[in-house]
Amino acid sequence: MTRKIGILGCGHVGSTIAHQIIIEGITDTLVLIDPDRDKLSADLLDFQDAQVNLSYHTKLIANDYSALSDADVVISAFGNITKAWETPTDRFAEFPYTKKYVEEAAPRLKASAFKGVLIVVSNPCDVITSIFQKITELPKDQVIGTGTLLDSSRMKRATAAALKIDPRSVIGYSLGEHGNSQFVAWSTVRVLGKPIKKILKEGAYPNADLERIDHDSKMGGHIVFFGKHYTNYGISAAALRLLKAVLNDAHEELPVSNYYQPLDTYLGYPAIIGRKGIIEQLQLDLSVDERTKLKQSADFIKDKTKEALKKNTE
Amino acid sequence: MTRKIGILGCGHVGSTIAHQIIIEGITDTLVLIDPDRDKLSADLLDFQDAQVNLSYHTKLIANDYSALSDADVVISAFGNITKAWETPTDRFAEFPYTKKYVEEAAPRLKASAFKGVLIVVSNPCDVITSIFQKITELPKDQVIGTGTLLDSSRMKRATAAALKIDPRSVIGYSLGEHGNSQFVAWSTVRVLGKPIKKILKEGAYPNADLERIDHDSKMGGHIVFFGKHYTNYGISAAALRLLKAVLNDAHEELPVSNYYQPLDTYLGYPAIIGRKGIIEQLQLDLSVDERTKLKQSADFIKDKTKEALKKNTE
Amino acid sequence: MTRKIGILGCGHVGSTIAHQIIIEGITDTLVLIDPDRDKLSADLLDFQDAQVNLSYHTKLIANDYSALSDADVVISAFGNITKAWETPTDRFAEFPYTKKYVEEAAPRLKASAFKGVLIVVSNPCDVITSIFQKITELPKDQVIGTGTLLDSSRMKRATAAALKIDPRSVIGYSLGEHGNSQFVAWSTVRVLGKPIKKILKEGAYPNADLERIDHDSKMGGHIVFFGKHYTNYGISAAALRLLKAVLNDAHEELPVSNYYQPLDTYLGYPAIIGRKGIIEQLQLDLSVDERTKLKQSADFIKDKTKEALKKNTE
Amino acid sequence: MTRKIGILGCGHVGSTIAHQIIIEGITDTLVLIDPDRDKLSADLLDFQDAQVNLSYHTKLIANDYSALSDADVVISAFGNITKAWETPTDRFAEFPYTKKYVEEAAPRLKASAFKGVLIVVSNPCDVITSIFQKITELPKDQVIGTGTLLDSSRMKRATAAALKIDPRSVIGYSLGEHGNSQFVAWSTVRVLGKPIKKILKEGAYPNADLERIDHDSKMGGHIVFFGKHYTNYGISAAALRLLKAVLNDAHEELPVSNYYQPLDTYLGYPAIIGRKGIIEQLQLDLSVDERTKLKQSADFIKDKTKEALKKNTE
Question: Where does the Lactate/malate dehydrogenase C-terminal domain lie (chains A, B, C, D) (predicted)?
Answer without folding.
Answer: 148-310
